[in-house]
Amino acid sequence: xxxxxxxxxxxxxxxxxxxxxxxxxxxxxxxxxxxxxxxxxxxxxxxxxxxxxxxxxxxxxxxxxxxxxxxxxxxxxxxxxxxxxxxxxxxxxxxxxxxxxxxxxxxxxxxxxxxxxxxxxxxxxxxxxxxxxxxxxxxxxxxxxxxxxxxxxxxxxxxxxxxxxxxxxxxxxxxxxxxxxxxxxxxxxxxxxxxxxxxxxxxxxxxxxxxxxxxxxxxxxxxxxxxxxxxxxxxxxxxxxxxxxxxxxxxxxxxxxxxxxxxxxxxxxxxxxxxxx
Amino acid sequence: xxxxxxxxxxxxxxxxxxxxxxxxxxxxxxxxxxxxxxxxxxxxxxxxxxxxxxxxxxxxxxxxxxxxxxxxxxxxxxxxxxxxxxxxxxxxxxxxxxxxxxxxxxxxxxxxxxxxxxxxxxxxxxxxxxxxxxxxxxxxxxxxxxxxxxxxxxxxxxxxxxxxxxxx
Lengths: 277, 168
Hints:
The structure holds 2 protein chains of 2 kinds. By secondary structure, chain A is mainly alpha-helical.
């Protein structure tokens, strides 16, 4: 009897699905498999369909992304770099479109002058100073200052408080350089005023900075602010030129000293040769 | 990727041809109802296929299918316990009577099923695995996550209980 139960259970192994039942289950399984395949295909296609439906928008976004990233890269370039022309020819031109009022255009020109001056400083400190490129940049700085001055002339002075502040400062500082004087800054004139000490120029920069800060604290955006900004960039340019001249002079002096020493060594060698003979 | 999916489909349909009768049998000897067993068999294969499609890895298909079927049987009993028979009948559920099982599978199988119904779920499960499904000790151990020794002892005890109950 003990074996009977096990035997009967083992007889159960003969129980099986009918062919109809088996086909029914298999059909359900195949349908599920097809649904899964379609779902997968649908998932794979969804991005493709999305981009196809929104082809124009997608292309626009892609172009925007590519140009945006290239443009951002160009911002860090210096003269001679591959994307520098993009920086000056496109980026800055586009920025200029947003400057609609004379005062905004003046500030925009000042910002361009600051950029060119920074590039000139960068080149002067690099291993390859390129004097001709530096001179071109300084000439561009002068040009931007000139344009800023023209816009400054067109700016309506609507801030009485700013005027009073500037007047007071000017009285304290003594005679201030007028724009007419500033816009004549050039490489040749900077050379002629080389006798002015670097300390005086630095003092001038400090005063211009202080004036700009004061005007900014009073939300000054009018003519006075532009004049102060022009004075600042002019003084910065002057400082750069003086330091550059000083460096060149030091380099020339050192070159003379080295040449003298080489000459002396040559003389000693000649004397020794004569003595041996 | 598409080729891989096709390969999976073919392999799974082969497994279905080979193991569907065994899974059905397992369910039948656990729930004593042919229609429910058929549904559980179908659900077992659909669930395992879903698992494969979602990236699941199966090392032993046979053990995995039996484990899934066993879990579905447990779920079935849990659900059955929570739903009263009245509610099921109101919903149109019509369980097959004992006589239907007897007609379909013979008087002895019907008697064995009656005996199994009197055992606990665990005892019934292990006897079905061993004698109806014909799984080896190692296969049952892998399916239930136990050692072979534990499985051997459980089979011996369950068999003793069944033999005390069984009256041919």
